[in-house]
Amino acid sequence: MTPEQIQARILFKDQDVIVLDKPAGLAVHAGPNSPDHLELYLGGLSFGWAAPPRLAHRLDRDTAGCLALGRHDKSIKRLGKLFMQGRMEKAYWTVVHGGPAEDAGEISAPILKVTGKGGWRIIIDRAGQEAVTQWRVLGRGDGLTWIECIPKTGRTHQIRVHMKHLGCPVRGDAYYGPDPTPGQMLHLQSHAIGIPPLSVNKEWIRVTAPPPPHMVQALRGCGWSDGAALSA
C-alpha cells in the first residue's frame, strides 16, 4: 500500500490512537508465509512524528476490520493493559453456513492449540483456556446467517472455533468450515471497537468499520442494507 492508500483506511485518529480498517488477506506481522504485512506500511501513519504507530493487538490475516494502533509508548502501554483486563469493547460480524435455532446465546467452551505434522489448529478441549463468546442473530438468508459475536475472552481463532462448535461454521473458513469454494474469503470482520478513556480528560472512543467488499453480497442476502447502523 502507498501512504495515501493506508491513510484512506483510517477510521479514527487522535493524539494517542489510530483505528485502522485492516484489509482481509493482509497479516499484521511478518512470518514465514507473510513477507507482505501491515507493519511494513505503518510509516505512512506517522504524520510527522518520529516513530510510526504500533499494534495494540492483532487480527488474523483473513479477518478484516477495526484494528487499534498506539501512537506513542504511553498509549501502547495503556491500550495493552485495557486488552489484558478485558475492558475493550469488541464486536465482530460474521456470515455462517446454516444457523442456530435460537436468536441469541453464549458459548463457553475452552479452546486448545494443538500442533501436528500439518501445522497447528485450535480445538475445543477441557484442557484448554477459558473462552467465552456472546452472539446474536442479525439476519438470515438462503442457507446463511448473519451473526454478531462479542468475544469476552481473546483467544486465537476463538470466534471461528466457537461458530463451528455451534454447528454453523464461518463462510470461507478453510480450517474449520466445510470444503471452501475456491477463491471465497473468510466472512469475519472486526466490525466495531470501543476504547475506554486513556486519561482523565479523554472520552470513550467508539468506531465502526464498513463491511468489507467480499462480505457485502452475503450480508445483503441476510437482510443487511447499505447505511444500516447495527453494531454493539
Characterize the structure shown:
This protein is α+β, with helices and mostly antiparallel strands and 232 residues long. It contains 4 helices and 12 strands; from the N terminus they run αββββαββββββαββα. The chain has one domain (3-221): Pseudouridine synthase (2-Layer Sandwich), CATH 3.30.2350.10. The chain has helices spanning 3-7, 73-85, 158-166, 213-221, and strands at residues 10-13, 17-22, 54-55, 64-70, 89-97, 104-108, 111-116, 119-124, 132-140, 144-151, 188-195, 205-208. It starts with a helix and ends in an 11-residue tail after the last helix.
In short:
The chain is α+β, with helices and mostly antiparallel strands. It has 4 helices and 12 strands.
Q: In terms of topology, how is this protein built?
A:
Elements: H1 3-7, E1 10-13, E2 17-22, E3 54-55, E4 64-70, H2 73-85, E5 89-97, E6 104-108, E7 111-116, E8 119-124, E9 132-140, E10 144-151, H3 158-166, E11 188-195, E12 205-208, H4 213-221
Parallel strand pairs: 4-11
Antiparallel strand pairs: 1-2, 2-4, 3-4, 5-10, 5-11, 6-9, 7-8, 9-10, 11-12
